[in-house]
Specification:
By secondary structure, the protein is of the alpha+beta class. About 35% of the residues lie in helices and about 25% in strands. The strands form two sheets. It has an eleven-stranded mixed sheet with strand order 1-4-5-6-8-7-12-13-11-10-9. Strands 2-3-14 form a three-stranded mixed sheet. The longest helix has 19 residues, at about 230-245. It is globular. The structure holds zinc ion.
Length: about 350
């Protein structure tokens, strides 16, 4: 394949037509690889972010059937400690709006709807932000089909991630997703084991698999299907049943992984939350731990920006962090039985 290098263009944003033109194939995963390579040539902030990533330390904790890695990553402090209260959000300039982005940052347009950018504060060696072109609140309602389609368009190397506005998104006022390499999402590798060991099948159908999984730390629904309408309808039911369970009419706290595979189609994991941050986040002195779980933490990589927290972290602490932010058994049972009934 012969690509025109992106930095040969003087403009910042490459329209979807241009992106597809210089790829010759309609493959956004390869377009992202080129974008990252080019941005590393002349964007210091990004290079600095990736240099910091070289220094991260990792500790691995084996649970029964799965692994949680703790990652010491000081440059994530801003995101971990992001003040997402309404007052703070209204005070600051939105850092996802095009006018406020660093001038070196280049993006690829997707369908006149989203812009795909490199994240200058990466957690993994390939970390992208997918930003809605309009300043529009973070919500999955009304954009879930876009999320699924994006997952398909980048599936060659990447999965797409969503954090709810009240449980991990550092810009709750501007709709955005993330894309990271599939191999970096530990849970994707373990999913079959987790389903076999901890899963409950919620529908009996040959090509539509839906499971409720409760693995001792996390509670989530896994949907596997090639049928996008089935997934969309089911997601609406998940959303509605969770809303009902917590008795609200705004978005219930969810984090989502969207993965696509040519053999089985979409693989969607929906995590259910009861709190944004665990108790230890609000403690003083020695009890305090600066951790703010979002979808990447739930996927198996817990981000700790402070060294003393990283030194302290152990299985017991990990367990209590998850216990604080994940819904309880009773609520999960309610959601599962609602789904079972509606799938009959
Ligand atoms: Zn914005």
């Amino acid at each position: 394949m012969k690509f025109v290098e992106l930095n040969h263009f003087e403009k910042r944003i490459f329209t979807s037509k241009e992106t597809e033109n210089f790829l010759k194939v309609k493959n956004y995963a390869d377009a992202l690889v080129i974008l990252l390579r080019n941005q590393k040539l002349d964007w210091d902030l990004l290079n600095n972010g990736y240099a910091e990533l070289e220094k991260v330390k990792t500790k691995s904790f084996q649970f029964d059937g799965f692994v949680i890695n703790a990652q010491l990553n000081p440059q994530r402090i801003k995101s971990t400690k992001a003040d997402v209260t309404k007052e703070e959000i209204e005070k600051r300039d939105c850092f996802l709006c095009l006018d406020n982005l660093p001038k070196e940052q280049k993006g690829l347009e997707y369908k006149n709807e989203f812009l795909l950018f490199c994240n200058p504060y990466p957690i993994f060696y390939e970390h992208f932000t997918i930003v809605f072109k309009k300043h529009f609140p973070q919500r999955i309602d009304g954009s879930f089909h876009r999320f699924l389609k994006l997952a398909k368009r980048v599936h060659k190397y990447y999965s797409v991630l969503y954090n709810g506005p009240q449980c991990g998104a550092s810009a709750p006022d501007h709709l955005h997703f993330q894309a990271v390499a599939k191999k970096d999402l530990i849970i994707l590798d373990e999913l079959e084991i987790l389903i076999n060991k901890y899963g409950e099948k919620l529908i009996d159908s040959r090509r539509k698999d839906v499971y409720g999984v409760s693995d001792g730390l996390r509670r989530y629904i896994v949907i596997k299907s090639k049928d996008i309408n089935f997934i969309k309808n089911l997601f609406e039911k998940i959303y509605y049943s969770f809303q009902k369970a917590v008795n609200i009419n705004t978005e219930p706290m969810i984090n989502i992984i969207g993965n696509y595979n040519e053999i089985f189609g979409w693989e969607v994991i929906v995590f259910f939350r009861k709190k944004h941050r665990p108790q230890c986040y609000y403690e003083q002195d020695d009890k305090m731990l600066t951790v703010s779980p979002a979808v990447i933490d739930l996927s198996g990589t817990m981000i700790l920006p402070r060294e003393k927290d990283f030194n302290k972290i152990n299985k017991e602490i990990i367990k209590s962090i998850f216990e604080d932010v994940i819904i309880g058994k009773e609520m999960f049972d309610y959601i599962k039985s609602y789904l079972k009934k509606s799938l009959e």
